[in-house]
Amino acid sequence: MPRLTATLRELYEADTRRAHSFRYALLVLDVATVTFVIVTSFLPLMPWIIACDLALGLGILADCACRLAISRAPLREFRHLSTWADLVAVASFLAPVVVEGVGFLRILRTLRLLRTYHLLERLRQDSKVFRRNEDAILAATNLGVFVFTMTGIVYATQHGTNPAIQTPIDALYFTVTSLTTTGYGDITLPGPTGRLISVFVMICGVTLFFRLAQVVFRPYKVRFSCTACGLQRHEPDAVHCKACGNILNIPDEGAD
To answer: For residue 196, with 0-12 CB atoms within 10 Å meaning exposed, 13-18 middle and 19 or more buried, which class applies?
Structure first.
């Protein structure tokens, strides 16, 4: 058992080639999982989908068990939202018939992987594209997670009672129109609960949407390492490092 724990700790935490390959394999598997979730959410539930759900659920459950096994304080892991997100993903995979409507919640697992410290550090080292667009990638991920999570909630709460919500596509359509405040009015959520969900989508969704637009078109800060103190993030027009006062030389294309 100590040998197994040491091996798992190396794979999940160490800075070795094998550990990097393992964590990238987890990322690839997770992207494939999310793609599977999105595609199959628009298909009728069939035996092969249930079989894939169970296989993926067992895989995620094994991953959770490994993370808890190498944790120095396993009980503290349950204080983290990411741990509960994984448990929701496991439940949605292992009980596809019961919780079919919240299948979109499985996409939360992508957010956990992109928040993992070691993976972020490795992506910064290996990918210039990621380093240059890290804020935009994370903002887009947060927005995507919110959209599909709310789609799952809308579908779970309205399917069977609201004739306008027949498929996950209807729930996605309502979520996007509410998010953008377009509000065509052809689909509405009746009752106090429906109105509260609509308000939540509009307020939180618009905030995330404008955050993404800001980091893409007018970034609040840029990533540029100070040669004196190593501070990574600065205002785009900064001349001096706010931490140590060192003169910066942030590349700037200049004003139009």
So the answer is: exposed
Q: Could you give the CA distance from residue 20 to residue 11 in angstroms, rounded to a whole number? A: 8
CB atoms within 10 A of CB 211: 17
First vs last C-alpha separation in the chain: 63
Q: What is the DSSP string of 167-191?
A: SHHHHHHHHHHHHTT---SSS---H
Q: Which phi and psi angles does 155 have, rounded to 5°?
A: -65, -40
How many residues are recorded in the chain? 256
- Helix or strand (DSSP H, E) at 234: strand 233-234
In the chain, the largest separation of any two C-alpha atoms, in whole Å, equals: 63
Count CB-CB contacts under 10 A for residue 214.
14
In angstroms, rounded to a whole number, what is the distance separating the alpha carbons of residues 153 and 200?
A: 12
Q: Which amino acid is at 169?
A: I
Token pair of 175 as six digits: 């979520």
Q: Residues in the chain with pLDDT < 70?
A: 96-108, 110-115, 117, 218-219, 252-256
Q: Please give the distance of CA 225 from its chain centroid, rounded to a whole number.
A: 27
The CA–CA distances, whole Å, from 139 to 47, 86, 143, 174, 251 equal 36, 20, 6, 21, 23
